[in-house]
Specification:
The complex is a heterodimer of chains A (256) and B (149). By secondary structure, chain A is an alpha+beta fold. Helix content of chain A is 21%, strand content 18%. Chain A has a single domain, classed as Alpha-Beta Plaits (2-Layer Sandwich), CATH 3.30.70. Chain A is built from 8 helices and 11 strands. In chain A, a hairpin with a 5-residue loop joins strand 5 and strand 6. In chain A, helix 1 crosses helix 2. The radius of gyration of chain A is 20 Å and the shape is globular. Chain B is an all-alpha fold and 149 residues long. In chain B, helix 3 crosses helix 4. In chain B, 23% of the residues are buried. The model of chain B has no long low-confidence stretch (mean pLDDT 90). The chains are: A alpha+beta (256), B mainly alpha (149).
Amino acid sequence: MNLDRRHFLVMLPAAAIAWKYVLAGTPDASPNYTMTDHWWSMLIDIPKCIGCGNCVRACAAENDVPDGHFRTWVERYHVNDWHMEGPEVISPDGGKEGFPAVAQSAGGGEGFSSAPQDEGKYFFVPKLCNHCADSPCTQVCPVGATFIAPDGVVLVDQTYCLGCAYCVQACPYGCRYIHPEKKVADKCTLCYHRITKGLTTACCENCPTGARKLVDLKDPNDPIHAFLKTHYVQVLKPQMATGAKVFYNELDGSVR
Amino acid sequence: MSLTKDAGHLFRFAFLFVVAFVVFLLVRHFVVPKSFGEYGHYRGAAIGEIAARPLHYAGHETCETCHADIAEAKKAGKHENVSCEACHGPLAKHANDPSIQPVKINTTVLCIRCHAESAAKPGGFPQIDPVQHSGGVPCETCHQPHNGL
């Protein structure tokens, strides 16, 4: 690899210009981004998740998430037989360093895991802000510090937030926390600084199996539309009528 | 006139009210941020501020513009869809200035995170028991990370 930056700039001016905008970090410099042209959300393909924790680490690195707090995390479910109400759920350090191994038994079954039927099934459920279209968290904010942006992303204005934590309690998914140093609400921004520049989120970029995919529901060419027509997809806690927009493929009914 | 004389206290009140209202408008003008209400009940400028946060992951498209040889090698193998920074970590600084050296990868930690055998993982994913499979020999002595075997 003996290509220096100058050669690179000469060779690939288009890519270089795009990268310059990316680094400039200003929304005006993100070419052709119009908020009203997008309606962002995410697709989680449960059968593809291997629980490696890459998304959790990537999110923490990209967004300076403090230790012990999570904008995204991974849970591992173990459902044995018919006890749908009481799945065994673990999430050691949010799944940041992966999960303890489960011994492989003889005669692996089909589907989610290679564990035999009598030991139940295992699967991973990555979680993050659902970027609800009717989000309870934005409704309870007393000062208008959290809001749904015109492109469907739920954001926090940290210069305006009082840190009262009403929104933390209002979120039915546990996706918000009070930042221990800034003392204001913090949450997933769907990597707003990336998606507005044409990049995918840090978690999707680093998912090795494509279990997480950023989707734009307003883009008619987004593969999400075909996916939703041909798969059995669920959102979390649909009974709460939050308008959650993170779609889970093959979500088990035991997931809360 | 007896009317105005009797109503004097009302006019004083009305005057006070108008003054208070003007003061309220003045204070509001200075306290409420300019962009508040631009799109809704929040500060519109906040959206731009959040969009301007710095990046840490450059994205594989950026890596591939310079490291085309590795991107090509990777296409041939099973790691085709694993992006560069999933293994190499956040390298936006390096992508902007290649003289900043990326950190060396510790493959014993890296590969096992994804490939360690566990019945909890989807059955189709290639998994190995690290002890049995390599017995402590670094993975890259037999495997090429960029084309997975």
